UniProtKB/TrEMBL annotation:
Keywords: DNA damage, DNA repair, DNA replication, Hydrolase, Magnesium, Metal-binding, Mutator protein. This is 8-oxo-dGTP diphosphatase. The keyword Phosphoprotein does not apply. Pfam families: NUDIX_4. Its EC number is 3.6.1.55. PROSITE patterns: NUDIX. It comes from Ponticaulis profundi. One of its GO terms (molecular function) is hydrolase activity. Residues 4-132 form the Nudix hydrolase domain. Transmembrane segments: none annotated. PANTHER family: 8-OXO-DGTP DIPHOSPHATASE, NUDIX HYDROLASE FAMILY PROTEIN. InterPro entries: MutT-like (IPR047127), MutY_C (IPR029119), Nudix_hydrolase (IPR020476), NUDIX_hydrolase-like_dom_sf (IPR015797), NUDIX_hydrolase_dom (IPR000086). Belongs to the Nudix hydrolase family. Its cofactor is Mg(2+).
Length: 141
């Protein structure tokens, strides 16, 4: 029986008062370059999902998040060819700083109803569906 390699990634939904959320393209040169994803990245040894996300938001977007700004929202679990992705997703409504791409990404603030128009990694398709239903239902589109 072949072993499944699990990759743990932490991702964040930065939600503005107008109910738009931030997506970023994967930088060129990386796997799945150009697709729209939630900001975040791999959880390194010794990190919690929260500390990894806080670090990634600083590295990728120069945004400062505090632990108390993060609420657990949902997760993705998706089998890619070479690994299985497990990705806790946190919601943040407060942060310090305006997101500025640090790695050449494009950024877009997207309303939940428009998420499905954004080409995304396979793991994000059910996630975008969830966000559309959840954020539209509970916050108003
Ligand atoms: N941050 C983020 N990663 C995602 C999302 N959806 C998804 O499949 N992923 C995958 O989760 C992994 C994220 O890790 P990462 O962004 O730190 O990866 P990396 O830059 O080191 O990528 P690399 O392994 O291609 O060098 C990638 O394989 C990425 O394709 C998402 O919405 N946000």
């Amino acid at each position: 029986m072949s072993e499944t390699r699990i990759i743990y990634v932490s991702a964040g939904v930065l939600l503005r008062p107008d109910n738009s959320l931030l997506l970023a393209t994967r930088p060129s040169g990386k796997s799945m370059a150009g697709l729209w994803e939630l900001p975040g990245g791999k959880i390194e040894p010794g990190e919690t999902p929260e500390s990894a996300l806080i670090r990634e938001m600083g590295e990728e977007l120069a945004v400062t998040l505090k632990r108390d700004d993060l609420s657990p929202l949902t997760f993705a679990s998706h089998g890619y060819d070479s690994f299985h992705l497990v990705m806790p997703v946190f919601l943040a409504r407060n942060w310090e700083g305006e997101p500025v791409p640090q790695e050449g990404q494009d950024l877009a603030w997207v309303k939940p109803g428009a998420l499905k128009t954004m080409p995304a990694p396979a793991a994000d398709v059910p996630l975008f569906d969830f966000l559309e239903r959840h954020l539209t239902k509970h916050v108003g589109a």
